[in-house]
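Q: Joint fold for the lines below.
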Amino acid sequence: MIAKKFIFRAIEIRLIQIRDCKYVFKVAKYRSFMKKRVLLLVVFGILMIVYLSGVFAETALLDKCTYQTEGQKCFAVKKDSSGALSIFEGRCYNDNCINVYSSTLKLDPDYVQKTIKERSFDPREQGFTIYDDYVCEVLVEVPSYITISSKHDILFESVLVTVGRNQDGSENEAELAVGTSRSLFASVSGLEFKEFRTINLPNGEKREFEVFDWKIKGWPDGLRSYDVNAMELAIKNKNLRCDIVRFQVNKPYITFFKGKELKTNNCVRLEGSMKAPTTFVRFRMTSAGFGIPQLVARSKESVSTFESIEPFKTYKSDFAHLIDLGDYDDSILPIKTDRFDYYSNYDSVVSILSKSDCYLKSTLPLSVLYSGKTSSYSPWNAGFIVINSKRLAILDVHEIGHAFCGLNDEYECKISISDSFRSLFYNLVVFPGNLMNCQNSPDGFKRWFGDYDRKLEPCTYSSLYRPSDNSLMNNEGVQGGQKFNDVSCAYCLSMIKASERAKDNNIKTNWQECMKMDVIKPS
Amino acid sequence: MIIQNKNIKFDWKVLAVALFFMFFVFSFNGVIAEGSESCYVKVNINENVINNESIGFSLNDISNIYGTYSGAVRQYSEDIPPFAILSVYSKTNGLIGKYDVGNALMFIVEDFSDSGPTGDLIMSDSGVASVIIPYGNNIGAMKVEFNGTETDLNVDTSKIKCERTCKIEGEFGSYDSDRCCLGFAPLQQNDGGFVCAKVGDGICSLYEDYSNSEDCYYSCPKEFGNNCSVTIVRNDTTVYPPLTNLPGILDIIQRWLDNEINLQEAVVGVNWLSM
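A: Joint structure:
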């Protein structure tokens, strides 16, 4: 051990000697050189000196860092976890010689466990988004005079950025979060010493580094959600990076070390297992005028409303809820303008949605589109519904009642069908009994839904009957009641259990189950 | 005092037998576990109004899909009459199953206000309905039943195949077009793509390292703070001496075992000891 210390001390002294003698030796050499040459060569000699001095300055390793030597190469002696000394090469950073080996973004392990427990999925499988909690893990070598107890006093300044690439290859950085290792601001946390870690380097060398962690909050409001523009850039760039920087007064910060770029995606899983049979994905069309925070807030409201209504409340684990943070340009979608406005070409809607990151992460989603230029509507069997962005979240559940449960409106609709179709429509679609919660006879309900007197008209059509006076499929329900009636609940439950229908799922037992839930029951 | 025994041995023979057994069971009774990823067939059916008198059905396309589609399978039920019924027959013409075919011709547009709801029920003259059915290697024909008439979709059943489309352990993918199967996490690679690996299972596999997986480094259990050591016990009964206070322990173990034997097979147990 004594011999080892002696060797290191000898190396240290030798390096210092080399640094001190270097310029003296070189200057002497060139002075002698000039004496032997004509005047013409003086200029050349000076140029050579300047050139060679520059080379030396570049290769010289400083043993002491000051404000003036910021960013220059340096060396220092470090002490590893076993107490052994070794020399490392670094760069001057904030008056210390520091070697930053890597800066890597990872999901915060506490966030991973919390998400598995509270939101029913493993965020490591979902991929990274700007709505996750991260740890920026920085591996460094620091001088031995910085003891473990004082490591929190090293002033590391860090930023979380998203990086855009210009056509000329240059980069545009937008700042998403700021951290410092010293509490400059009470609200800003920064890099803190965590542990020693030995790493296998690519060249086969094994080296021990000190690990500093910076915890960055993303969930539940998103990274730096108050900076809307930076968040939009992160959506566009689909990446994050944690850099070590030096802040300057009234000037942009200087990047000292660029971290490893993390690829992100725009599909935020609010909650629900990746194995959930049904997945809803909420989108914003450009016309909705939603920024990312509004989209997320509206989606959360939609989910909480959905989960407050039976039978979805009881079976909420059968559903997963995703948000696509992207901005979908609906100016290219043709609009049919009539008594109501709607996207007239389904294929083009499905086409632009198919590019969604969420479509890769959910097998057959039902998409909820927030639009500012259409009415709310539900195409049957199209895989999406459209909600006017100014409407309340309860309307989302009403439209889901159409699209997921197959329910019909329990008020009278205008039938926009040409006269030539009308006969076909009534004969083939209405009267065979496809209208579920609407029946063409009051007794139609009695087969499955108890012996109750249900003589309420209309139900989509003037000649059809609805199960209850008010419900979520009627205006009153949307405005205030916010419950399905027993019949609608039974059909929704049948859809939740659709893949089990051949076994023990039938409409009567589902109705009996719904009668025990908080639904509008027959009087 | 031995506090915790973390067994990370991986027995491939046991796994192979278990997988074979599972495959055997599934292939014979056709059961698809709820929520698991399996093969399905997506059938897109054209619906067209014919001469304002009837509705015609024809095959738009058929595709093999893989994932958690069990909730999307709408099995036919007499008490919830669908718009039309898709009957799937075996190669010997036996009925395999019946599934709902939705109405792709209609939609509801509506608005709610204080003055009451207004809505239009709109019907178009053509649409495409999607039906998801479980994969079967014996599917011989598909027919749509509507208003008492059955229409053969003339499906080329030779195109129906069961192919896994997601990536599993060690398989590479592109962020733009691929995904990892359930239970695997995408680990970013230097080329901009990803490789799938099980993360959080305590095994530092080939593509995991300190920068992307907690499986590749071990810290002292929290209850010990920084004061613990570890003893490695290998299945050849070799006992490595205790290591003192070294949080990057798995890297160190790996370093020892480099050029000797794969870590996953070699290490029987990691015993944490209090100091």
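Q: Anything notable?
A: Confidence is low (pLDDT under 50) at residues 1-30, 52-58, 182-187 of chain A. Chain A touches chain B through 93 residues (CB under 8 Å).
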